[in-house]
Specification:
It is built from three helices and no strands. By secondary structure, it is an all-alpha fold. It starts with a helix and ends with a helix. The mean pLDDT is 94.
Length: 90
């Protein structure tokens, strides 16, 4: 257990950050999963909207430092590749 005031404060800060990071990462994963489901369903109009939303969440996570910017680029690239290989965009 933390003994000093600064260590106690650090524990509080880490708990807050961990909760925020978890929420951001969870929201990002959910939107990516929705986009992948929409792509697999074949409805390209809905898939395009879902991919745009997923890319937005990925960018937000990278901006907040929850994921690395290279990981964000990789995730976006793979998602767009999956969308483009599914068929012509609507």
């Amino acid at each position: 257990m933390a003994n000093t005031a600064s260590a106690i404060k650090r524990v509080r800060q880490e708990a807050k950050r961990r909760a925020r990071n978890h929420a951001v990462k969870s929201r990002m994963r959910t939107t990516v999963k929705r986009a992948q489901i929409a792509i697999d369903a074949g409805d390209m109009a809905q898939a395009n909207e879902a991919v745009v939303a997923a890319v937005r969440e990925i960018d937000k996570a990278a901006k907040k430092g929850v994921i690395h910017r290279n990981q964000a680029a990789r995730r976006k690239s793979r998602l767009m590749q999956r969308l483009n290989n599914a068929g012509p965009s609507a």
